[in-house]
Design goal:
51% helix; 4-stranded antiparallel β-sheet; 187 residues; alpha+beta; single chain; cNMP-bd_dom; Crp/Fnr family transcriptional regulator
Length: 187
C-alpha cells in the first residue's frame, strides 16, 4: 500500500486520519495473467490502483479483441461510465501479467467520502486524472497519423512499447500488425 500512499500524496494532502477513514474501502488483490478484473456486461464496482504488473481494457468486435487502454504501475484501472452510472461495462479489464492491485470498493469509498471531505477530494482528483488520460487517447486518434501515434508512445509511454505485445499494441494504435512492424522497422 506504500505505492498507493505515495500516489495519494502526489495528488492532495492526506493525513493519517484521512488514511484511517479510507482503509476500510481498500483491499489488496492479486490476479494471474489472463484473469479478469472486470468482464464486459458486469457493473464496475471498484477502482483498481495498479501496484505491480499491468492490465488492459478491451472489447470484442466480431470475435476480435480491440485494445482500448493499458494500465501500468501507478495507474487506476476502471470503467468510469459503469462505475459512475451503474451501467453494464462495454469492455473487459484483464491482467496481462501477474498483477497486484489495491481495490477501492465503490460503496465503501462513497461512505468514506461522505464522512471525510478530503477523501471526496481525492476521488474527484483521481477521476479527473482518468478523464484526462482518456481525452489524451482520443486526441491521438483524431489528430495524429499511425506513425505519429507510435512516436508519441515512444516518448510518453516507453514502458508500453517494451511490455505490450505487438498484436495488442497494433490493436491499441488502430493499425494492422504488419503496419506496426513497418513503422518500427523505419525507426
Amino acid at each position: 500500500m506504500k505505492e498507493l500512499q505515495t500516489y495519494i500524496h502526489s495528488l492532495t494532502p492526506f493525513s493519517d486520519d484521512n488514511w484511517q477513514h479510507l482503509l476500510p474501502a481498500l483491499s489488496v488483490q492479486h490476479f494471474r495473467k489472463d484473469e479478469f478484473l472486470l468482464r464486459a456486461g458486469e457493473v464496475c464496482n471498484a477502482l483498481f490502483f495498479v501496484s505491480k504488473g499491468y492490465c488492459r481494457a478491451f472489447y470484442d468486435k466480431d470475435g476480435v479483441d480491440i485494445n482500448a487502454d493499458f494500465f501500468f504501475e501507478q495507474d487506476i484501472a476502471t470503467n468510469i461510465n459503469s462505475y459512475g452510472r451503474r451501467e453494464k461495462s462495454t469492455f473487459s479489464i484483464q491482467a496481462c501479467e501477474p498483477l497486484e492491485v489495491v481495490r477501492f470498493d465503490r460503496d465503501l469509498l462513497l461512505a468514506a467520502a461522505a464522512a471525510d471531505p478530503q477523501i471526496e477530494t481525492l476521488g474527484r482528483l483521481c477521476l479527473q486524472r482518468i478523464a484526462a488520460k482518456q481525452e489524451k487517447h482520443t486526441a491521438l486518434f483524431k489528430l495524429m497519423s499511425a506513425q505519429e501515434r507510435y512516436e508519441y508512445l515512444e516518448q510518453a509511454y516507453p514502458e508500453m512499447l517494451q511490455r505490450v505485445s505487438l498484436s495488442q499494441l497494433s490493436s491499441f494504435l488502430g493499425i494492422a500488425r504488419e503496419t506496426l512492424s513497418r513503422i518500427r522497422g523505419r525507426r
